[in-house]
Design goal:
Belongs to the class-IV pyridoxal-phosphate-dependent aminotransferase family. The protein is α/β, with parallel strands linked by helices. The protein has 6 helices and 15 strands. 23% of the residues lie in helices and 32% in strands. Strand 2 and strand 3 form a beta hairpin.
Length: 240
């Protein structure tokens, strides 16, 4: 295993990876990330060993806080680090025109083109994040860099068809609630009571506004009742 510059690993094609949050030199939700990463390695037939001492080795290298990406190719394991991206006070999410691959979208892979195209739409619109469609373009399944969770009539729902979110799973466990896996339509999003983004680099982040084709839906921006540092947006203080 070796440390590689972040921009170099992002250029890799045939690889799988996971991104973990670092807090106080500790990698958060390690077991969940390793379970998802090893599942992807098995699916794509990648054989490099995840060394038992990898976690302690990384933690000895890390910054006090930030993000660590573990990338696996057919022949090696690579590690890279970066800081958090700024999070604005108001979170606007848009629906992009891009489609997630029906198989690759279930894994974190080096196939970045759909996400890069969606991210370009997001940047041009001035939004914070963009959501993407399944191959049928009927269902919204994932974001360019985060999953999502929605609430309607007091019930929680998470999308089918996208990457399983370690951060979302951790939040649901902490709250002791169930979120049904459903195919999420555009109408489901616009009729939801609340919407959150879920990811290592942002924790559980409440969405203020959803936009699509000139239509806007404003939500009551309400943080989930979670206390673990890995679930709180990096800009926010941790409640003790």
């Amino acid at each position: 295993m070796r440390i590689v510059p972040s921009e170099q690993v992002q250029a890799l094609g045939h690889c799988v990876y996971t991104t973990l949050r670092i807090h106080a030199h500790q990698l958060l939700y390690w077991d969940g990330h390793m379970e998802r990463l090893k599942s992807s390695m098995d699916f794509f037939g990648m054989q490099p060993e995840i060394h038992p001492e990898l976690k302690s080795w990384i933690e000895a290298q890390t910054l006090e806080q930030g993000l660590c990406r573990i990338t696996v190719t057919e022949t090696e394991v690579m590690v890279s680090f970066r800081g958090f991206k700024p999070i604005p006070e108001k979170i606007t999410v848009m629906l992009t025109d891009q489609v997630v691959h029906p198989v690759l979208g279930l894994h974190k892979t080096g196939n970045h083109l759909p996400y890069a195209l969606a991210a370009k739409e997001v940047q041009q619109s001035g939004a914070f994040e963009g959501l993407m469609w399944d191959a049928s373009e009927q269902f919204v399944v994932d974001g360019t860099r985060a999953g999502f969770l929605l609430q309607k009539n007091g019930l929680f729902f998470q999308p089918l068809g996208g990457l399983p979110s370690v951060t979302r799973d951790a939040a649901l466990r902490e709250m002791g609630i169930q979120a049904e896996h459903v195919w999420v339509t555009r109408e489901d999003l616009f009729s939801a009571d609340r919407l959150w983004l879920c990811g290592s680099g942002m924790g559980i982040l409440p969405v203020d506004t959803l936009k699509d084709q000139g239509e806007e839906r404003n939500f009551t921006s309400s943080p989930l009742p979670v206390r673990s540092v890995g679930l709180i947006p990096p800009r926010a203080p941790v409640n003790r």
